[in-house]
Amino acid sequence: MQRLEHKIALVTGAARGIGAAIAERFQQEGAHVIVTDVDAVAGQALADRIGAVFARLDVSSEDDWARIEAQFPQIDVLVNNAGITGFEGPFDGAPPAHDPEHATLADWRAVHAVNNDGTFLGCRYGIRAMRTKGQGSIINISSRSGIVGIPMAVAYAASKAAVRNHTKSVALYCAGQGLRIRCNSIHPAGIMTPMWEPMLGDGPDRAEKEAAMVADTPMRRFGEASEVAAVAAMLASDEAAYMTGAELSIDGGILAGSAATPGQ
Ligand SMILES: NC(=O)c1ccc[n+]([C@@H]2O[C@H](COP(=O)([O-])OP(=O)(O)OC[C@H]3O[C@@H](n4cnc5c(N)ncnc54)[C@H](O)[C@@H]3O)[C@@H](O)[C@H]2O)c1
Questions:
Q1: Is residue 156 annotated as part of the catalytic site, yes or no?
Q2: Taking the CB of the first residue and of the last residue of the chain, which one, N or C, has fewer CB atoms within 10 A?
Q3: Which residues contact 258 (CB under 8 A, 6 or more apart)?
């Protein structure tokens, strides 16, 4: 028995990385998947490969969401996954400063437009598109950075904290309305996806950089996108019927200890 049979699931930022892994897993679990992304070429290719449909969606655009609402007025599962750090580039010179003393308002707003406005607009659509059936599952991809401070990526950290809290407001709102629309957040850390490429580079020191980045992770490795997808599949399924407003970390144990590394 597939866990998501007969469910329609829309995933944002699904052309690659965690979103792509979630889309693929949902499809394997029997869902009808709508892959969405700003990258139409990679998004369409992924959709063709896994047997899903593709629709272009910039999550920060209210007009794009209105088009999605007209095209897909009813869904069962929504994953608000699209997110940026602000370090994607390419840049003319060095990457921009994202510390609290030097970050520009424009750079701050650009990150919030995708991570925060995108999640707000997504949840608003999700509630409307699940209201007819009165049930469904909204999954917001936050981050470990939404729980602890990240001094060199303040817009990212603040936006992910907002995603964490908005999840709980949505969960309470839906429960208060007598709807069985659940809303939960997933908090990954150190998942090997193209998001890390600008930080790892392709130089001879790549392996060294990778090892340094997971040195403080209790499990001493990066996570796989498929491991996040497994958690999303559980939250999307009816097995999680009593879970709402919850936050699930998938971080190799980082947040389990205040100093991260056990035994030190
Ligand atoms: N990889 C990690 O270690 C990690 C850790 C914590 C949280 N996350 C979160 O997981 C989510 C996915 O991350 P990833 O590592 O797969 O990133 P990624 O950069 O590999 O993929 C992000 C996808 O989002 C798309 N995207 C960017 N802006 C968009 C927009 N405005 N509208 C629609 N799509 C857009 C990109 O085209 C891309 O396909 C993000 O929200 C990220 O913050 C990732």
A1: yes
A2: N
A3: none
Domain ranges of the chain: 8-88+96-196+225-250
Rg (CA), the chain: 18
Could you tell me if 9 and 32 are in contact, meaning their C-beta atoms sit under 8 angstroms apart?
Answer: yes
Residue 100, H or E segment: none
Question: pTM higher than 0.90 for the full model?
Answer: yes
pLDDT tens for residues 93-136?
889 999 999 999 999 999 999 999 999 999 999 999 999 999 99
Q: Are 20 and 13 in contact (CB under 8 A)?
A: no
The listed CATH number (2.60.120.260, 3.40.50.720, 3.40.50.10860, 3.40.50.1820) that belongs to domain 8-88+96-196+225-250: 3.40.50.720
Q: How does DSSP classify residue 113?
A: I
Contacts of 110 (CB under 8 A, 6+ apart): 84, 86, 155
| One-letter-per-residue 3-state SS of 160-215 | HHHHHHHHHHHHHHHHHCCCEEEEEEEEECCECCHHHHHHHCCCCCHHHHHHHHCC
Q: Check if the beta carbon of residue 157 is closer than 8 Å to that of residue 112.
A: no
Nearest protein Cα to ligand 1, atom 25: 13
Q: Is 162 helix (H, G, I), strand (E, B) or coil?
A: helix
Contact 98, 151 (CB under 8 A): no
